[in-house]
Amino acid sequence: MIGSTCRTLLRFLAIACFIGSAFAAPAAQADAAKAALDRLLAEHWEWQMREAPEWATMVGDHRYDDRLADRSPAALERQLAETRAFLKRLEAEVQPARLNDDDRVTYDVFVHHLRTGAEELSFPATATMVLSNKAGLHLDFPQLVQMMPFRTERDYRNYLARLRALPGAVDRNLEAMRLGLRIGWVTFRASLEKVPRQIDTLLVKDVTSSPLYQPLRQLPPELPAPVREALAAEARQTLEQTVAPALRRLREFVVNEYLPHSPVDGSIKRYPGGEAYYAFRVRQQTTTDLTPAQIHATGQAEVQRLRAEMEALMRSTGHRGDFASFVKWLNSDPRFMLRDANELLMRYRDIAKRVDAELPRQFAQLPRLPYGIRAIPAHEGPETPEYYTPGAADGSRAGWFNANGLALKRRPTWEMEALFLHEAVPGHHLQTARALELDKLPMLRRSGFYVAYGEGWALYAETLGGALGVYTDPYARFGQLRMEIYRAARLVVDTGIHVFGWSRQQAIDWMSERTGMRREEVAAEVDRYFVWPAQALGYKIGQLHIAGLRDRMRAALGSCFDIRRFHMAVLDQGALPLAVLDQWMARWLAQERELTKASCPTGSGTVSTAER
């Protein structure tokens, strides 16, 4: 899972397009159409950096590190008009028939994103649903701090400017939520009830113990002592006199004005215009035209298949009890429990060494950008799941797998391998780092993200554990299946809640009975689906799509199918909507057939158990 700040910023991605030319066009085809396309792409990127300075920080563009985005309702109205203007110009100034195949794909994806972005901005939820226990200023700002550079006095001055900008961001949030109160778009209660406690982690008596003071505890010794002292003093004053009052104001609003009007039933169909919004979210998050009914049925079938595999694996261990007793044993036996956070980190680092050594068997090229493994900050709490923080395009910041070393009884060792494969390599880090290094693509394309592609790839990466040799016992393999089955269950539960009238309790009961997850874990999962409708659909839909492409390519190429080349083909165009990925893979298949037609028969490929 991508971290909270990343998710909030990626929401802005749906407003803007991050797709550039796939390859430099031959000189003969570098005509006015391509020039116009490139010009609009470059202009759009610069617009986005100005509009989303947090996103600029994330990708390594530090020109706007002293600013926070304006996400007020008025600003979103302006962004809607500007997005529509970009789309109008694109359709008027670029003649797609004159583009080569690669640029035509870029054009089609650009149109897709501008249309999707404009559609998202037209829904009231975009302007009003700005705060929950999963995302919001109180969570995003501390994670943003982790992505800022802190090497020079200017870096620290930028941070102080962002701290001073925080009250304005709070006020814009309050404006958005008050609009939501007026028009009936208020965050689901079970999620909102957790927000005051989250804000409290930033409201500490001694500001030097605040997570927001962390950069000032590590001032570079190269800075003159008077400068270090002045920066630290200014930070303390700003946190005490500017930031803390703003956060208290936000907390008081949530408790006194917002929570009393929050709905107990958070199904989107209960909101004004909610059915249309959910239909849009399904299209946006899956990048397909699948209907909720089709997705629901797919989830039912996948849950049934995976549960059968889990029970067969359970029997292979010699366990004599039922499924529930097996899961209870896995969650309590001392052999699967860790002593402390240091042991957790050491174990993850051992997994990393084993996986890194095996990656060349599955990938023809590996990214240069390194990744690290670290504990999440304590203020994020025991309920925060592990997540990935992307590196910077200029290589100045590594990618990070953030592991939660709190409440270790909730984190048995048998699920660690699959979790690592998802968040680090060959999952999020390998995919995003590889995209950042595709220097023939513009930054828009290199830093793009789609849930169905990015999370679908990360879930697919979990299934590579057999081929990578990390599922060395049936318990680790069971952990992989358990992680996959709850992604499949999401297809059923998310659509059940928002389309088919399921209650929260019904969703919790159904998911608990089938997945082997603890009820408290399931409750947190279900509440997530209320807060981010349809977002959870992208994982399993994307994974099934990528696995299906692999199987079709193998069947078509027979003995000439090379899994290493297939994986690079999926990765080396950057993130794509699934329909565009299909177009690209059809072209790749034709190229592979041409390259191998003299030496390989086709149609005789099979899929090994290790690759499933």
UniProtKB/TrEMBL annotation:
Write out the entry's keywords from A to Z: Signal
Taxonomic superkingdom: Bacteria
Coiled-coil blocks: none
Asked if the Swiss-Prot or TrEMBL record annotates the protein with the keyword Signal, the reply is yes
Q: Which InterPro entries match?
A: DUF885
The secretion signal range is 1-24
This chain belongs to the protein called DUF885 domain-containing protein
Q: Which organism is it from?
A: Caldimonas brevitalea
